[in-house]
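Task: complex structure prediction.
Instruction: return structure tokens for all chains below.
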Amino acid sequence: MSKSETTGSLRNKIAPIISYSLTDQVETRLLDLFKKEDLRSGDAVPKENELCEAMGVSRTVIREALTRLKTIGLIESKKNKGMILKEPDLLIGLDKLIQPKILSEETLQDMFEMRLVLEMGIAELIFARIQPKDIADLKAILKTEKNYPAVFEMDFEAKFHGRIYEIARNNTLMRFQSMLLPIFQYVHDKGMKLKQEELPKNYVTHALLVKAIESGNPEKYRDAMKRHLKVHFDRTIKIRKLITD
Amino acid sequence: MSKSETTGSLRNKIAPIISYSLTDQVETRLLDLFKKEDLRSGDAVPKENELCEAMGVSRTVIREALTRLKTIGLIESKKNKGMILKEPDLLIGLDKLIQPKILSEETLQDMFEMRLVLEMGIAELIFARIQPKDIADLKAILKTEKNYPAVFEMDFEAKFHGRIYEIARNNTLMRFQSMLLPIFQYVHDKGMKLKQEELPKNYVTHALLVKAIESGNPEKYRDAMKRHLKVHFDRTIKIRKLITD
DNA sequence: TTTATGTATTATGTATGACATATTTAAATG
DNA sequence: CATTTAAATATGTCATACATAATACATAAA
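Output:
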């Protein structure tokens, strides 16, 4: 086709025209305003009508831009009262997005690996912040795990590892990992179900992990965790190889 | 005041009434629809007018709900063409939010720690996926670091560690850490500036890290990284103690 | 017949005006 | 002065209209 040839050669000479919608422009102007005025969490945002007049666009556009900022948690609007700037929640919206069905296999893989990475890297924080109650709680959880590890239940996994993250006393990190649970569940259901005979020889159980926490150090704990997660590491590394080849 | 007393004691007995706005309801209905219909990335979303009629609300409300979903990257709308479901970007919006000024000290602390955690936990992926070119690139970066570590430049830090993350070949992880850079920068500028005399005795430089990658294993690398990040670990642990006490 | 141009349709983007509702403020009343 | 009433306020919702650009189709030129 001559058309595609033409555009093909032209593309290097002429840059495509990008048109920012009014809403786009309003959004960036709002962000600029907040930065310029150095507004902090709790400060009031100008009224919609004031913004309309100041920027010379309809309330429709202003509201759409505001809706975006509300969606990312930067603004909170109280009905009939006004809007204030909020301390944004970095993980906002994530729970709506983490649905295995709409995420690509690659992204799922990425997130699954991130969980593995966190699980390994968290050791220093754990040993820096652990308190007696943490270990007591973990032991209590162990007792509820009937027929583990012969029977692998997602519920055990979530409760146990969730409690470990709590030790690190990093709220954002904890919430992040809890959001990753559906992905872990998905990968598990998808064929990772551990039959008893597939458990590695020196498989590290939750009980052994607790022991490593109780009387170990970051290095020992990590070694235990590495073996606890071995099948997952092996699998993700194998899969990624398949994808990139 | 008797009023505040009353609400105080009643709050435990009576749950507050929560009213979901029309937009809220439309949003969840849309998400339900997508899930129910098992829509995937690329599939078409019903037209605005169809949605209006189906749900019996005005286009305004429909559009506001759609705007939310566009904001989190679940939907993409092509002007005058229609809307499609998109593979959502899990990190969307994050770049707008990561501005030290609007984040609380605690969240900044959380994110800073997450970076430390990732840096430690990434070792397994690195050694599973490293290729010759990676090491060559790292060595090339080393040569550009003039007067390091005597002079600490954020730029060095970003380039070097960014390249390390690339080795793991996890796109989401890589983008995530690059978004954390402003926070690292902020914390650094805020008083973490390493004067030469403050460098720990056996400080691990970037060069030593490369060596650990080149002829080591995950454990050795982590040991090196731990010492490389020691001042940061020490500081964040000290600070968190102050906050919680 | 093929190609390029003009045209109608379509769906989102934007504007305008109105009303509902709950909060706050101010006024009025006892 | 305290309490109640009324008014002003700001967001949430509705309805309608038009602008604009992508697509498909029709049409004229080669």
